[in-house]
Amino acid sequence: MENRAVTGRLEDKLIAKLESEPMKALAYALMEILPSEWVFETAKETGFCQRTTSTFNPLVFLWHLVLPFGASLRMNLREYHRTHQKISAKTFSWPAYYKRFTPELAEFLSRAISRAISVVMGSQKRDLADFLEKIGIEDIIAIDSTLVPLNEELAELYPNARSATCPAAAKINVQLSLRNRSVRGFQIEKGKANESTLLEIEPWMKDHLLLFDMGYFKIDRFSEIENAGGYFITRLKSNVNPVLLRSYS
Q1: pTM greater than 0.70
Q2: Distance separating alpha carbons of residues 102 and 118, to the nearest angstrom
Q3: What DSSP state is assigned to residue 244?
Q4: Are strands 231-233 and 169-177 parallel, antiparallel or unpaired?
Q5: 187 within domain boundaries
Q6: DSSP assignment letter at 146
Q7: What do you get for the CA distance between the two ends of the chain, in Å?
Q8: How far apart are CA 192 and CA 159, in angstroms?
Q9: Model pLDDT for residues 222-243, shown as the tens digit of each residue
């Protein structure tokens, strides 16, 4: 309880030092993602800081690294130390500050990043699920492919379209579920395989929104997706002249 009261006042003081409203909004978001209790517990678990002292507070240290308290975002450690002095309760010597950059700090920051990603992604996932339910879409599937260069001795099995510069390559075609944040399916084909042949219309596409680029562009496929009860978004080729049925702008 003592830590909570102290850090509550500290957080208010730190936010007050931010001049721009966007940075203050970011600071409030940081409070939600990395609450002070979690910061203190994790600092202790990782061995970064066993206890809070009048000269060193892991919450202040973390906030100072994440938020731009200095005049420039490109600061060296000396400049970070100098600006840290402005927000720290008491003077923190340069050697003591420098010695805080340890493997334990790296583990502490790694856990902070992992938690932040987990919290943000989880929130976005819930928001997306609610949105999809409202519009009657089961999932959004992003579809794309990439080339992976291979040893030239595999050119016969995996020929590449750019045979002069890279004789062998595999084309990996991936279907990514945005709702579940996971791979729904993938194919490994020859590098010279045309993307337009890699998208087969299947029953699962009903009530799904497909996102793909012009490599998969095929007029007949669009009708097949619609007949299967699915939806799609893609870019139009320059030589296509569609009839606009309605506008939602």
Answers
A1: no
A2: 24
A3: P
A4: unpaired
A5: yes
A6: E
A7: 52
A8: 6
A9: 999 999 999 999 988 888 888 8
